[in-house]
């Protein structure tokens, strides 16, 4: 076998080895990128699912529920495309798609859900903040336009106001239960001021009226209580003066003696 032939075989062998190595590196790089993307999508899916499950039933209006559901369907669609053999992804995609269709049939607006647990209110406010951040990212990526983002943001803002007034309602009740009327009036007025700023659609009109009436009642009770306290102090002072009045009876008795 000539030297040229041997060199040719060696060259071909080296080429095959290099090609194989490059191919394996490319496959590994693609697999690594696929795993990274799959992990990111799974994390996003958990966040969206937490939003759907974390809010009380009917707390979010239809538009926001549809938005979160659509986003979750998109995530599971991408996961199914990454791993077509994974039946879990396709199963979740089907389930969320059915849930999305249910949300679409709901009324556009529903009655506000009142929150009565302070810890729950804090959790809900965190979720609303996360949802607002997500909407801002959707607008930045041009997946929704500025007008849509503004509508969603306004809806979230209303829910934040609602949770704030619910939190103040808890503080009002605690103050009243503790007999701290002045503190209750303070929280009532804070709530009235907050609702009046956000009452363009008349949503809080009845509640504002009720709170103002309650403030008037508490003010009246305090005035009456203060008046009674002043009278009791005046009566006590008069009794004390009577007790400390000098006894001149012995002088009169000495004169007659």
Question: Would you give an account of this structure?
Answer:
With 257 residues, the chain is mostly helical. 82% of the residues lie in helices and 0% in strands. It has helices spanning 3-54, 62-82, 87-104, 118-140, 146-177, 181-197, 205-243, 249-256. Helix 1 (3-54) runs antiparallel to helix 2 and helix 6 runs antiparallel to helix 7 (205-243). The model has no long low-confidence stretch (mean pLDDT 78).
Compile the SSE list and pairings.
Elements: H1 3-54, H2 62-82, H3 87-104, H4 118-140, H5 146-177, H6 181-197, H7 205-243, H8 249-256
Helix pairs in contact: 1-2, 2-3, 4-5, 5-6, 6-7
Radius of gyration: 37 Å
The proportion of strand residues reads under 5%
Q: Give the overall pLDDT as a whole number.
A: 78
Largest sheet features: none
Q: Could you give the order of the helices and strands? A: HHHHHHHH
Helix proportion range:
over 70%
